[in-house]
Amino acid sequence: MKVIENDRYRTAVRDQAVHQLIDRGLDRRTTHAEARERAPPKVLAEPVNCRRQMRP
To answer: What pLDDT sits at residue 1?
Structure first.
C-alpha cells in the first residue's frame, strides 16, 4: 500500500506542476528563455572570481 500511495502522490504532484505550467501557457524551455532575457546584464557580466580581482 505504501508504494501505491507514494506512486499516487508522485503522479499527483507531477500533474499539478504540469497543469501549473499549462495554465500559465508556458513550456519549460520558454520559461528558461524568459528568465535569461529578464536577467539583468550585470549578473551575467559579473566575473566568477571577484575576490581574486578585487585584490591589489
So the answer is: 44
What are the grid coordinates assigned to 15, written together? 500533474
* Distance of alpha carbon 11 from alpha carbon 20, whole angstroms: 14
Sorted by sequence, the CB contacts under 8 Å of residue 47 that are 6+ apart come out as: 53
**What's this model's pTM, rounded to 2 decimal places?**
0.23
CA–CA distance, 48 with 56 (Å, rounded to integer): 17
Using H for helix, E for strand and C for coil, what is the string for 9-54? HHHHHHHHHHHHHHHHCCCHHHHHHHHHHHCCHHHHHCCCCHHHHH
